[in-house]
Amino acid sequence: MMRITCNLKQVLLLSCLTSPFSYATSETSPEAKEQYVNNEISAKFIKPAVYKAMKKVADWQLTRFNKKTYLFEGYDEGAYMSPTDSDSHPQGWVYAAYHVGMSRWSELADSKGDSSYYQLQYDIAKQGKYLFSPRIYNADDYAIGQLYLDLYKKYQEPEMLVPLKVIFEMIMQTPSTISLNYEHVVQKSNLTSDELDDKFGGRKFPIVPCKNRWCWADALFMGPPVWINLAKQTGDQRYLDFADKEFWATVDFLWDKEDHLFFRDSKFFEKREKNGEKVIWARGVGWVAAGLARILENLPKDHNKRAKYEDIFEKMMTRLAGAQQSDGLWRPSVLAPESKPFKETSGTALMAFAFASGINQGILDKNTFLPVVSKAWTALVDAVQPNGKLGWVQQIGEAPDNVSKEDSQIYAVGAYLLTGSEVYKLSKD
User: In the record, which residues are listed under signal peptide (predicted)?
Assistant: First the structure.
């Protein structure tokens, strides 16, 4: 792996961590701000109903944004969203996943004459100088690049893509060749034997060497769609070539040829549920499904591996369709729903988006898979509380876990908006 010079790294990290945000939010109390989203929604496949269901969740989430700290607030301590936690970095993966869906909603709202959501995203990105979370090679920390690409598509301001191009150029010039085997590393001082923390801006970041490549399922949502979209918008084939090479290295490592699903990472290769099935995490495989759908949106139709991408996508989606539960949701453990018998909306929304996008792209058969989308969308809308809060979201983690009705997270809101954007296309006027 490349070791960049200290000065350059320090400049990049300092600018990432000190960049301010500007966000136009109401000065009224949270209770007052929530009143305007407290209206009924339905899961009908008609465009006005889908639009209303998306708007309600989008608007409630924005009432949680603190314009002084530039963070979403109101999460309990177990949600890993404190100002000192790496996951709460406003340019990290949690926020990036939210913005991926929010950009789709902004585009839809803008088409209806409401540009306010685009303007909010524009202000956030501009004031943040289009920068990134600190780890140069980690897909979690450059996933926010999709926001800048989405804004560039609309506003065509070249400065939006400058930091993204710089970081990706560094990666291409000195790519990591580390093993994809997943492990946390603890470093200790040779002088004091104290554990050394990897800290930036008051946040502690875990040390996982293989994350300098795409060694975990989530990375296939965070990383390659950004590279391939950048290739499309700039015409630079090198970005696509790099993403294609690394994508298939990850697929060869994490793809389960027997069940046509993806392990979250190498720690799960030998783990089994009580029923003897493999541990396939719903959100983990959901990240891959949604990531592949996004890749296929921008992968050239004449790409020499297009058929190969579509093949694993179809196989995975067919297998996932068979694991959907009767209520339209997937449980945290896909192949052992009884092990964690909780409703779960983040993995469900990511998968539902992939199904709907696959249909809209003409890759998945509509007659076969539309019922899957319909059941999932009905379940997702049903998980929205009267005030607009999306519940039943498994908290930040890496394996199937318990979930409650009150659990929510912004990455799930992003996935919900992604799904809604595709359901809207499938719906009647």
Answer: 1-24
For 72, the 3-state DSSP assignment is strand
C-alpha atoms less than 13 angstroms from C-alpha of 321 in its C-beta half-sphere:
21
CA distances in angstroms from 238 to 143, 168, 292, listed in the order given:
18, 10, 19
What string of DSSP letters covers 312-357?
A: HHHHHHHHHHHH--TTS---SBTT-TTTS----HHHHHHHHHHHHH
Is residue 11 included in any domain, yes or no?
A: no
* Residue 190 maps to a domain: no
Which domain covers residue 305, as residue numbers? 46-185+197-426
Per DSSP (E only), the strands in 174-333 are 187-188, 195-196, 199-200, 203-204, 255-256, 261-262
Instruction: Count structural domains, the chain.
Output: 1
The whole-angstrom separation of Cα 232 and Cα 149 is 10
Q: What is the pLDDT of residues 233-287, one digit of tens each?
A: 999 999 999 999 999 999 999 999 999 999 999 999 999 999 999 999 999 999 9
What does the block give as tokens for 195?
A: 């554990």
Task: Look up the pTM and report it.
Answer: 0.91
Q: Which residues pair with 46 in a beta bridge?
A: 428
- Residues whose CB is less than 8 angstroms from the CB of residue 272 and which lie 6 or more positions away in sequence, other chains included: 278, 279
Residue 5 CA to its chain's centroid (Å): 31
373-414 pLDDT, tens digit each: 999 999 999 999 999 999 999 999 999 999 999 999 999 999
Contact 282, 224 (CB under 8 A): no
Tell me the C-alpha distance between 348 and 172, whole Å.
34
Asked whether residue 10 is assigned to any structural domain, the reply reads: no
* Under 8 Å between Cβ of 164 and 142: yes
CATH number at 350 reads 1.50.10.10
What is the CB-side half-sphere exposure of residue 46 using CA atoms within 13 A?
A: 6
Rounded CA separation 360/219 (Å): 24
pLDDT at 38: 54
Which two tokens mark 155? 């506003």
Cα distances (Å, whole numbers) of residue 186 to 212, 256, 290, 399: 16, 30, 32, 21
The answer to whether the CB of 394 falls within 8 A of the CB of 407 is yes
Instruction: In whole angstroms, give the CA distance from residue 237 to residue 290.
Output: 23
Cα-Cα-Cα-Cα dihedral sign, residues 352, 95, 228, 103: positive
